[in-house]
C-alpha cells in the first residue's frame, strides 16, 4: 500500500470511530432526557408535554382541543421561521403561564416535530 492509501484508510477508520462515539452520546442524551421527565413527573411538576391550559385558552365559543391545535400550529410556524422567542411570547399571552413553562412547552413542541 502506498502512503496515500494508508492515510485514506486511517481517515476512514477514524471517521467510523467518531460516528460510533456520536451515536453513543446521543443514546446517553436520550436516557438523561427520559430520566429527567420521569423525575419531573414524580415530583408533581408539570409535564413538558402537557401545557397549563388555563383561562385565556378556554372560552365557551370554541372547544379547548381546537384552540390548542391552533396555537400549536402557530407556534410550529414560528419555530420553523426560527422565531422561538416570539413563539414563547405568544404562548405566554395565550395560556397565561410563566416564562419557564412557556419555554418548556415550546421546546417540547419542537422536539415532538422532529
Shape: elongated
- Rg: 21 Å
Q: Got a strand count?
A: 0
Termini separation comes to 44 Å
Low-confidence runs (pLDDT<50, min 5 residues)?
45-62
How many strands, what sense, and barrel or not for the largest sheet?
A: none
Helix content: over 70%
What order do the SSEs take from the amino end to the carboxyl end, as H and E? HHHH
Averaged pLDDT, please? 81
What portion of the residues fall into strands of 2 or more residues? Answer: under 5%
The DSSP helix count reads: 4
Q: Specify the structural class.
A: mainly alpha
What brief labels describe this structure?
mainly alpha; elongated; 114 residues
Description:
With 114 residues, the protein is an all-alpha fold. It contains four helices and no strands. It has helices spanning 3-42, 64-80, 84-95, 99-113. The longest helix has 40 residues, at 3-42. It is elongated, with a radius of gyration of 21 Å.
Describe the protein's topology.
Layout: H1 3-42, H2 64-80, H3 84-95, H4 99-113
Give a brief outline of the structure.
With 114 residues, the protein is an all-alpha fold. The chain is built from four helices and no strands.
Amino acid at each position: 500500500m502506498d502512503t496515500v492509501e494508508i492515510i485514506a484508510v486511517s481517515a476512514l477508520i477514524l471517521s467510523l470511530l467518531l460516528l460510533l462515539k456520536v451515536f453513543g452520546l446521543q443514546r446517553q442524551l436520550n436516557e438523561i432526557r427520559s430520566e429527567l421527565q420521569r423525575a419531573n413527573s414524580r415530583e408533581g411538576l408539570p409535564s413538558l408535554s402537557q401545557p397549563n391550559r388555563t383561562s385565556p385558552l378556554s372560552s365557551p365559543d370554541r372547544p379547548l382541543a381546537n384552540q390548542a391545535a391552533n396555537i400549536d400550529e402557530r407556534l410550529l410556524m414560528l419555530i420553523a421561521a426560527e422565531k422561538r422567542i416570539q413563539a414563547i411570547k405568544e404562548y405566554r399571552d395565550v395560556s397565561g403561564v410563566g416564562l419557564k413553562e412557556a419555554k418548556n412547552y415550546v421546546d417540547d413542541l419542537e422536539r415532538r416535530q422532529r
